[in-house]
Amino acid sequence: MDTPGKAIIMSLTITFALNIKSGNPISCEASLFTSIPTKRCPRNELEWNTRAALFNCSSINQTCVKPDKFEYHCVLNENVTGLVEVCAPSKHVFEQKCLHFHTGGKLIQESVIHCSSGLIICPNAYRSTEAYKYQSCYEGVIQEEKEDNNCCQRIYFYKSEPFGNSEVLMIAVFIFLPLCTLVTLVSFAY
Fold first, then answer.
1. Domain residue spans in the chain?
2. Rounded mean pLDDT of 123-149?
């Protein structure tokens, strides 16, 4: 191989190695098929390991990374409005950021949300598979969901039951009974 060809291959190899080492995410088509919305992410290592065992990500047929590097994650969705469980290549996270799954890029990446506040703040760098340790990433989504559910349950309640049994009985007694009496009286008058 000629010298320019070797130089190009060497620079591509170095660039790829630096991307992986620096935590740049790896796009993986197989991740799309494992993404499932969820109401709650694991809150501790036991819950995380239980969900990881159920997903069994290392057994999924993919060519992105070695099987043991294709791991369970529970992160924000790409709109930061919900949570998803997904198998994806693990990565290093920097700058005290939460993570989200980007469906277009088919990868886990840093979110606009910071995990630098809350009871347990995240360090400047952590592994994506340790996200369960930093619950502040999920709190905003969970709180919004609770508020939305309360709102919608109230709306649903009023829409689904406009009248109770007692209201129907009152309408029957005070409207239909006098109306029937009036019709009967009018019919006898003729």
1. 26-143
2. 78
The two tokens of residue 67 are 């099987």
Q: Which amino acid is at 172?
A: A
Burial class (CB in 10 A: 0-12, 13-18, 19+), 65: middle
Break the chain down into helix, strand, coil percent, rounded to 5: 50, 20, 30
Mean pLDDT within 103-131:
90
Most distant CA atoms of the chain, gap in Å: 116
Query: What separation in angstroms does the CA of 56 have from each of 59, 64, 119, 160, 173?
Result: 6, 16, 31, 42, 64
In terms of Cα–Cα distance, which of 53, 68, 57 is closest to 30?
A: 57
- The pTM (predicted TM-score) of the whole model is 0.64
